[in-house]
TrEMBL record:
<dbReference type="GO" id="GO:0140662">
    <property type="term" value="F:ATP-dependent protein folding chaperone"/>
</dbReference>
<keyword id="KW-0067">ATP-binding</keyword>
<dbReference type="InterPro" id="IPR013126">
    <property type="entry name" value="Hsp_70_fam"/>
</dbReference>
<comment type="similarity">
    <text>Belongs to the heat shock protein 70 family.</text>
</comment>
<dbReference type="InterPro" id="IPR029047">
    <property type="entry name" value="HSP70_peptide-bd_sf"/>
</dbReference>
<keyword id="KW-0547">Nucleotide-binding</keyword>
<dbReference type="Pfam" id="PF00012">
    <property type="entry name" value="HSP70"/>
</dbReference>
<dbReference type="InterPro" id="IPR029048">
    <property type="entry name" value="HSP70_C_sf"/>
</dbReference>
<dbReference type="InterPro" id="IPR043129">
    <property type="entry name" value="ATPase_NBD"/>
</dbReference>
<dbReference type="GO" id="GO:0005524">
    <property type="term" value="F:ATP binding"/>
</dbReference>
<dbReference type="InterPro" id="IPR018181">
    <property type="entry name" value="Heat_shock_70_CS"/>
</dbReference>
<protein>
    <submittedName>
        <fullName>Uncharacterized protein</fullName>
    </submittedName>
</protein>
Length: 587
């Protein structure tokens, strides 16, 4: 722990690191592209400058010693963590060996063991990137864990011994930039995640933005001047708005006062708690929508929730608490854990467990997190073959068997997807890899085992092995561009329900196409067997061969849309191949 006065670092790290400007919200830039509409929207309200860097990466512009410097969000986070470690060591008077951090790993010369908390909706690529940065920095990442989950651990420390039977606990974590919700069942020291939900772009900063926009317009009406393009004025106004927001959590009215906001013009304006709620009501309701969606995913009625735990500084907002309490029919919210520190407490407890420093309360705790989306590979017909269903507890591992599509095929490409749609192209591509060295053989002979393995950090590793030769290929998903926001995930789940009929039709079509394709190749192998071909009249043999090749060529026609077309073609081909059908069973 560090003194309260050090908290300025969390809100304005550059005042300490650079003494020039106060960039924040680096977490909102991590893993995003400069062209992302959300980034572009935030840029208009930030008083610091963000430009496009290599590969569409957002870079923060800072004036350091009269020289312009460009830093990525990851570098900014690294500087913050390094400073935090120095401060902690100065306060404690000794070297910090273990640390927990609710952000991104940092560049530190001496190895430090850390537990990193991330958003519940960080996918495997983001988690892998987080762990990789820690490794590059010389840090040993003991565990990557979801923020609402560690808040649950903090809550559960004083409940484990008193808990009789299982209890359903909903964690509502509303912070500065994100909203996360998790529903867990706690019993006998086991924390089982039932469902997760969240929005990676909904939090206190968004509430500040609404106030800033409101007062920019008010200043414009009063003085006929638009200050939206003035970084210094925006920074000072934002600071006043954030202060007012905090005051309104305990008072029903306050005021915005900024001396000489622009060209010597002072600005003063009162604001009530009711007005603040009005400015942000649609955002507050979004928070409740996330809660409702999380319960729906878990197939649990809100009446079955025993405790509602609030975490994150923005959960202190009275209107948010009122909406949350009303949603749960007046149930009292659990505020026994400091909202600002609950994630840090839980992460520290997890670090203690992992490093063997358990006490009586920690000795029996087991945490089981879940995957937010189904994971699988693309198979014939552009169909999604799911290996790990949505909301599966991890760590987990599952295998599936696949084979070749063509004769003498010596390599297979595997495309890894996450999502809930039947067609792989409607889901999110995470990565791809190829298995080489498959012995030439007839299609369908090769036996390829594909394994999906999600570790304790939620990082996905995929491998494929030829069970005949033992040849193996694997991939760890690392593509940051594949990251899905909560809105993406919510949309994919919603679309899966809306387009169920369409997906069922696609499955029927894919099944009919595969049946026709298998039959055509089966008959081709049969007719090409000299022992069988010699028993047929030349004209009959030619007719069958021509029909088979016609169908195989016809299968490549992209205009085919109906399952009935494949079924009709199969009936037609069966009638042509009737003289050799009995021989085809051996292939």
């Amino acid at each position: 722990m560090v003194p309260y006065s050090y908290r300025i670092l969390f809100g304005y790290p550059y005042q300490i690191l650079f003494g020039y400007l106060c960039p924040w919200d680096a977490k909102r830039l991590i893993g995003r592209r400069f062209s992302d509409p959300l980034v572009q929207n935030d840029i208009n309200l930030w008083p610091f400058k963000v430009i496009e860097g290599p590969s569409d990466k957002p870079m923060i512009v800072v004036n350091y010693k009269n020289e312009e410097k460009h830093f990525s969000a990851e570098e900014i986070s690294s500087m913050v963590l390094k400073k935090l470690r120095q401060m902690a060591e100065a306060y404690l008077g000794k070297t910090v060996k273990y640390a927990v951090w609710r952000a991104f790993p940092s560049l530190i010369k001496n190895p430090t063991y850390i537990v990193v908390t991330v958003l519940a909706y960080f996918n495997d690529s983001q988690r892998k990137a987080t762990k990789d940065v820690g490794g590059i920095a010389g840090l040993n990442v003991l565990r990557i864990i979801n923020e609402p989950i560690v808040a649950t651990i903090a809550y559960g420390l004083d409940k484990v011994s008193d808990c009789i039977g299982k209890r359903n606990v909903l964690i509502f974590d509303l912070g500065g930039g994100t909203a996360d919700v998790s529903l867990l069942t706690i019993g006998n020291g086991v924390f089982q995640v039932q469902a997760v939900g969240g929005d990676t772009h909904l939090g206190g900063e968004d509430f500040d933005n609404r106030m800033v926009k409101h007062f920019v317009e008010k200043f414009k009406r009063q003085h006929k001047v638009d200050i939206s393009g003035n970084p210094r004025a925006l920074r000072r106004l934002r600071t006043a708005c954030e202060k007012a927001k905090r005051i309104l959590s305990s008072s029903i009215e306050t005021s915005i006062e900024v001396d000489s906001l622009y060209n010597g013009m002072d600005f003063f304006s009162p604001i009530t708690r009711a007005k603040f709620a009005e400015l942000n009501m649609d955002l507050f309701r979004k928070c409740i929508d996330i809660v409702e969606k999380c319960l729906s995913d878990a197939k649990m009625d809100k009446s079955c929730v025993h405790e509602v735990v609030v975490a994150g500084g923005s959960s202190r907002i009275p209107k948010v608490q009122q909406l949350l309490q009303n949603f749960f029919d007046g149930k009292e919210l659990c505020k026994s854990v400091n909202p600002d520190k609950s994630v840090a407490y839980g992460a520290a407890a997890q670090a203690a467990i992992l490093t063997g420093m358990r006490n009586e309360k920690l000795k029996d705790i087991v945490l089981l997190d879940v995957t937010p989306l189904s994971l699988g590979v693309e198979i014939r017909g552009s169909e999604m073959s799911i290996l790990i269903p949505r909301n599966t507890p991890f760590p987990t591992k599952n295998e599936g068997n696949y084979t070749t599509r063509y004769d003498n095929q010596t390599a297979i490409s595997f495309l890894v997807y996450e999502g809930e749609r039947a067609r792989s192209c409607d889901n999110n591509l995470l990565g791809q890899f190829k298995l080489h060295g498959i012995p030439p053989a007839l299609r369908g002979v090769a036996d390829i085992e594909v394994c999906f393995d999600i570790d304790t950090n939620g990082i996905l590793n995929v491998s494929a092995k030829d069970r005949t030769t033992g040849v193996k290929s694997e991939i760890t998903i690392t593509n940051d561009k594949s990251r899905l926001s909560y809105k993406d995930i919510e949309r994919m789940v919603r679309d899966a329900k809306i387009y169920k009929a369409e997906d069922d039709g696609h499955r029927k079509k894919a099944k009919a196409k595969v049946a026709l394709e298998n039959y055509a190749y089966n008959m081709r192998h049969t007719i090409n067997d000299e022992k069988i071909g010699s028993k047929l009249a030349p004209a009959v043999e030619k007719k069958i061969k021509d029909a088979i090749e016609e169908v195989i060529l016809w299968l490549d026609d992209p205009e085919l849309v109906d399952a009935e077309q494949f079924e009709d073609k199969l009936v037609w081909l069966e009638s042509i191949c009737n003289p050799i059908r009995s021989y085809g069973n051996q292939y």
